[in-house]
Amino acid sequence: MKLVAGNSNRPLAEAISSYLNVPLAKAQVRRFADMEVFVEIQENVRGEDVFVIQSTSFPTNDHLMELLIITDALRRASARRITAVIPYFGYARQDRKPGPRTPISAKLVSNLISHAGVDRVLTLDLHAGQIQGFFDIPTDNLFSAPILARDIKERLDGGNRMVVSPDVGGVVRARALAKRIDAQLAIVDKRRERPGESEVMNIIGDVEGRSCILVDDIVDSGGTLVNAAEALLANGAREVYAYITHGVLSGGAVARIANSKLKELVITDSIMPTEAVKVAHNIRVIGIAQLMGEAIGRTATESSVSSLFD
Ligand code: R5P
């Protein structure tokens, strides 16, 4: 087995490498003066089972091109099998046509990855499970729920917990976590009653006096979370936490979270945390190296990956 890392999340790749006790393969992934990506795999990979670790996170297009070009280099170097390990799959939110003459970019990106020569994909908490079907190659979508559930159980009082979906679209994900930690479920229902009027947040469920745990796949601008936290507190919640898999945290998101009423935002390291994230007083990062490493090991030995979620 060989592990190759792109530049998107080197610390995670190193943590996976130490979990598996397999060193990262020597490779150069760098830029020419005009910013074209250049890749050179500096050791023999002929006949090897190769795992390329690369989140397609910000700057998304650069990291996607790195993944494609690394794959091309490996294919031309006669790797036996190439698995793209994509802890955060960028473009996933563009998984349908929101209107006429718009793209389905998640499908286009899936095509690019397959056509570059990837044989399998290993990813985590896809924005929508159906994106697996955009690939005509085996695609394993891992869940961070067991890791998040363990953390919640260790930190928050059992009897008072309530899992909250910040929008109606996230109910299935939130319900799955609520079941794992034996908590009730509430839903933030955002509605614009009339065009031009501001959105009204209705809370479905009684959150009075509860420790609410907002659950989502992505925190990007932070707007969804901050608004949901305010609505929950206005409805009598005692405190609000958020457990989100992918900390995209674009623009002023970290400051928005830091200045919000959220007691704590917990994210995973599927995307490499910035310095601002690391020093934020109410953001904590939990590691997924063990989960990703275990899934890589099981893929290499052709053993069950689904049993990781039991
Ligand atoms: C959307 O469907 C996702 O699940 C997240 O709710 C969304 O990406 C969060 O975005 P933001 O943090 O910008 O409100």
Overview of the structural elements:
There is one protein chain. This protein is an alpha/beta fold and 310 residues long. The chain has two domains: 2-142 and 290-309, Rossmann fold, CATH 3.40.50; 145-287, Rossmann fold (3-Layer(aba) Sandwich), CATH 3.40.50. 31% of the residues lie in helices and 25% in strands. The chain is built from nine helices and 14 strands. The strands form three sheets. The chain has a seven-stranded mixed sheet with strand order 10-9-8-11-12-13-14, with helices on both faces. Strands 1-4-5-6-7 form a five-stranded parallel sheet, with helices on both faces. Strand 11 (211-219), helix 6 (223-234) and strand 12 form a beta-alpha-beta unit. Helix 1 packs across helix 9 and helix 4 packs across helix 5. The structure holds ribose-5-phosphate (R5P). Ribose-5-phosphate binds at residues 93, 169-170, 216-224.
Instruction: Report the CATH architecture of the largest domain.
Output: 3-Layer(aba) Sandwich
Q: How far apart lie the N and C ends? A: 26 Å
User: Strands of the biggest beta sheet: in what spatial order?
Assistant: 10-9-8-11-12-13-14
Shape: globular
The biggest sheet, with number of strands, parallel, antiparallel or mixed sense and barrel status, is: 7 strands, mixed
What level of helicity do the residues show?
A: 25-40%
| Radius of gyration computed on alpha carbons | 20 Å
Low-confidence stretches: none
Do you know the CATH topology of the largest domain?
Rossmann fold
Specify the number of helices. 9
Order of helices and strands: EHEEEHEHEEHEHEEEHEHEHEH
Domain count: the total is: 2
Question: Total number of β-strand segments?
Answer: 14
Highest-level CATH class of the largest domain: Alpha Beta
- Which molecules are bound besides the chains? ribose-5-phosphate
What is the SS-derived class? Answer: alpha/beta
Q: Report the mean per-residue pLDDT as an integer.
A: 96
User: What proportion strand?
Assistant: 25-35%
Family: Belongs to the ribose-phosphate pyrophosphokinase family. Class I subfamily.
Enzyme class: transferase
Function: Involved in the biosynthesis of the central metabolite phospho-alpha-D-ribosyl-1-pyrophosphate (PRPP) via the transfer of pyrophosphoryl group from ATP to 1-hydroxyl of ribose-5-phosphate (Rib-5-P).
Organism: Microvirga aerophila
